[in-house]
């Protein structure tokens, strides 16, 4: 195995000089730096990152926890975060919690044992995992994405405005009876999108005559099952304003499942029933009919989240630097810091899946 001593000998410099070239923390003359890099390349030397981390108290790695990798929204986010982190010299350890709290706790324990410098966290439930709160209490830098958690920094989109844009569009087309299929009831994204929908409907033409609400998981199976349950309950057989003329899905995966179920019920979209989603994942432009949805700026969200986390890490918030430090007494307590929240705008993308409602029966 090639060691740092071998590199120093081949380059004709000291071991400390090679170390400074690798870390970039001290100025080295350009000819010397190039000579060291040439020796590294020629010998095939690979630095021991674990040993470097023990010295620098930085592993140059980030933990990323997502709730459902089967959802392409999270896959695209994870890819964009990995790219942004790599550009800054960090690696990413990706963990799929699959909406399982015990699995999530296991992953959090594993990530901390690997000395990650910080965590990028997509909440999947209303109640934060106890293991996450323990990591925060231990001083681990955390940035939440997509769903808000009180007292934690995060990067989000304007879900309320996205719902409002959808509501205004549907109201202007003449829809007054709608079925809203949400994710988990009470989850911030679900609440904000629903409240925005109500506001947009009012802005576009007054309060809806009928707004049915169904909650569950942010998964295609939930959209599929909800449509069939509603059909068995006679929702789509109702007459007049009791019959929904539009289905508003809280995300694109729910919309995909709903579209399949509507087809099985011989209800054509948008002739018999309009359909909308939220997120703007790639497949929404490729299905038939193409899906009207709210486009999230995924790359901007991912990049902003990585940048916010690295700012907190590089500002000296590394939890290993503070290990064993005494907490201030009440009379020494500092003023509570401002919790940074980044909120990015969304864009309504109107496609084939919406149309004016059919004539009342």
Number of beta strands:
12
Shape: elongated
CATH architecture of the largest domain: 3-Layer(aba) Sandwich
Strand content: 5-15%
Structural class of the secondary elements?
alpha/beta
Molecular structure report:
- InterPro entries: Cro/C1-type_HTH, HTH_LacI, LacI/GalR-like_sensor, Lambda_DNA-bd_dom_sf, Peripla_BP_I.
- Residues 2-29 form the HTH cro/C1-type domain.
- Residues 2-56 form the HTH lacI-type domain.
- Keywords: DNA-binding, Repressor, Transcription, Transcription regulation.
- One of its GO terms (molecular function) is DNA-binding transcription factor activity.
- With 361 residues, this protein is an alpha/beta fold.
- It folds into three domains: 4-47, lambda repressor-like DNA-binding domains (434 Repressor (Amino-terminal Domain), Orthogonal Bundle), CATH 1.10.260.40; 59-157 and 299-318 and 337-343, Rossmann fold, CATH 3.40.50; 159-296, Response regulator (Rossmann fold).
- The protein is built from twelve helices and twelve strands.
- The strands form three sheets. The chain has a six-stranded parallel β-sheet, with helices on both faces. The chain has a four-stranded parallel β-sheet with strand order 7-6-8-9.
- Strand 3 (118-121), helix 7 (130-137) and strand 4 (142-145) form a beta-alpha-beta unit.
- The longest helix has 20 residues, at 298-317.
- The termini are far apart.
- Mean pLDDT is 88; it is low at 317-333.
